[in-house]
Design goal:
Blueprint (H helix, E strand, L loop, with lengths): L6 E5 L6 H12 L4 E6 H4 L7 H15 L13 H12 L4 E6 L7 H19 L8 E6 L6 H8 L29 H15 L5 H12 L3 H15 L4 H12 L5 H12 L1 H12 L11 H9 L2 E4 L2 E4 L2 H16 L8 H7 L7 H16 L4 H20 L3 E5 L8 E8 L2 E9 L3 H18 L3 E8 L10 E5 L2 E9 L2
Parallel strand pairs: 1-4, 2-3, 3-4, 9-10, 10-12
Antiparallel strand pairs: 5-6, 7-8, 8-9, 11-12
Helix pairs in contact: 4-5, 7-8, 8-10, 9-10, 12-14, 14-17
């Protein structure tokens, strides 16, 4: 892309390896090109106060990168003069401009003026009328068209009358379609280097597959799990991966998770999208033409899966679900007491059947007189809120978002070395219920589990009384509990 003189942006979530990529790219290109590698974060917000200050600070940064070798630029106090200076700078050499943290600027109009210079000079060069940067790479979380929206959120920009929230001042950019997530084979390469150094005897493919199962290759999450296993667990088995996940999900000083919770808290549209997809199981068509989907995608929280929106990985699923649970916990009604928790987790073994039976009893006691429409919408979140403090500290759970819809939700619970497969369903008739059992059995086959659990919420006025019981389905067992408000 650089050789082809492309201008492009690299937009990925926090801690996705963007800066590391730029560093590697710098080293790779330095022999052939003159490289200007800047960071708008280092430039500082004061540099965007006005046009003159930006021009001076921009050139000071370049001069420092090039050991003060620039010609005098004291007279460059506006964008037209900066344009002329760039022409002079690039006339006799191939200059590649790389700007990291490009979404850190705080004045949209100044930043827009700078982009307009680059765009105009790119077009003039295409017509053979100007010299400018050979290639420009802008790197950040937000896409250029979403930067104004970010600044509105931050309070640094206010929309004028008839001004739109989004626009695209960078329509000359080529698409950057490089998949920066780690594949299983790439994780295996990392583990192989570790294995050669430490001779752990690990099964490379099995461990890499398990790491990918929880992270979907998100670089910093892959690295974090490996760090836990190397520094704290001293083991490289599937069980060690699960324990590393448990510890990672509980981190309180993780910058990626802090950013996730901040974005959920301050952006209602992103929050609602994730709640719809993850908790309510609503099918949302993936399209970046929808600005809310596009923004959530740019954050790295969702991906496209068979034309639908899906949460990017299971670790994000856990953290996002926990966020919604903490909001629901503020109600405080269906929080199990310590004695019940000890009974369900007696001997460090989780009794899932007892957990579901006790949940059904508590539901009937606390929710028999509630609005049915509210309960039908919130029933699954209420169960997850009940479940969380029971397994907290010794395990975790995640929602299988690919299998979730507005009537059913598949949940996997990990407690010590136990694994439980649950399906939460809303009663929609006998045939649909039997279909749900088939779906649960199919998911159990996928996970190689011989027993599973079915929790059905029955909101009919006259529900059929079904006592909790195990049922045999071929060679597999399913424990079914019906929950009703009657």
């Amino acid at each position: 892309m650089v050789d082809a003189e492309f201008y492009f942006t690299i937009n990925r979530g926090r801690q996705y390896g963007k800066t590391t990529l730029l560093s590697a790219l710098y080293n790779d290109l330095a022999a052939e090109y003159s490289i200007i590698s800047l960071s708008f974060e280092a430039l500082g917000s004061a540099s965007f106060s006005n046009e003159m200050i930006f021009c001076q600070q921009f050139l000071i940064q370049i001069s420092e990168k090039w050991n003060g070798s620039l010609d005098d630029f004291a007279a460059v106090t506006n964008f037209p003069n900066l344009s002329k200076y760039i022409t002079k700078l690039c006339t006799s050499r191939k200059v590649v401009l790389m700007i990291d943290e490009v979404d850190k600027e705080s004045n949209f109009q100044v930043f827009l003026g700078f982009l307009n210079i680059l765009r105009s000079k790119y077009i003039e060069r295409s017509n053979g009328h100007d010299s400018t940067f050979h290639s420009v790479i802008l790197v950040g979380v937000y896409d250029i068209k979403n930067i104004k929206f970010k600044m509105i959120q931050d309070g640094s920009h206010q929309l004028a009358q008839k001004e739109v929230e989004q626009n695209s001042p960078w329509n000359i950019a080529e698409k950057f379609n490089v998949d920066m997530a780690f594949s299983i084979s790439e994780i295996m390469t990392m583990l192989d280097a570790c294995e050669k150094d430490h001779q752990t005897g690990m099964n490379l493919e099995r461990v890499a597959t398990e790491i990918h199962h929880y992270t979907n290759g998100y670089p910093v999450l892959v690295s974090s799990l490996c760090r836990y296993m190397d520094e704290e667990l001293s083991g490289w088995t599937k069980i060690d991966v699960i324990e590393a996940v448990r510890r990672l999900v509980r981190e309180t000083d993780n910058e990626l998770f802090k950013s996730l919770s901040q974005n959920l808290e301050r952006n209602e549209k992103v929050r609602n999208l994730l709640y719809d997809v993850l908790i309510l199981g609503r099918r949302r068509t993936f399209s970046t033409d929808n600005p809310n989907i596009d923004l959530t995608f740019r954050y790295g929280y969702v991906m496209e899966d068979k034309d639908l929106v899906k949460v990017f990985n299971k670790i994000f699923e856990m953290r996002i679900t926990n966020y919604f649970i903490t909001k629901d916990e503020e109600d405080g009604e269906l929080i199990p007491h310590g004695g019940l928790i000890n009974e369900i987790t007696k001997g460090n073994r989780f009794n899932m059947a007892l957990c579901l039976e006790r949940f059904a009893l508590h539901w009937q006691e606390l929710y028999s007189d509630r609005d049915l429409k509210f309960l039908e919408k919130q029933c699954r979140l209420i169960f997850l809120t009940y479940l969380k403090p029971i397994i907290n500290g010794a395990g975790f759970y995640f929602i299988e978002s690919a299998l979730t819809d507005d009537r059913r939700m598949d949940v996997v619970v990990i407690f010590n070395q136990q694994r439980f497969v649950l399906e939460l369903k809303i009663w929609k008739g006998l045939l649909y219920n039997e279909k749900g059992v088939e779906q649960l059995l199919g998911y159990m086959d996928k996970l190689d589990e011989n027993s599973g659990y079915l929790l059905t919420f029955d909101f009919r006025k006259n529900p059929e009384l079904i006592l909790p019981a195990w049922r045999l389905e071929g060679r597999k067992e399913v424990f079914e509990v019906r929950v009703s408000s009657v």
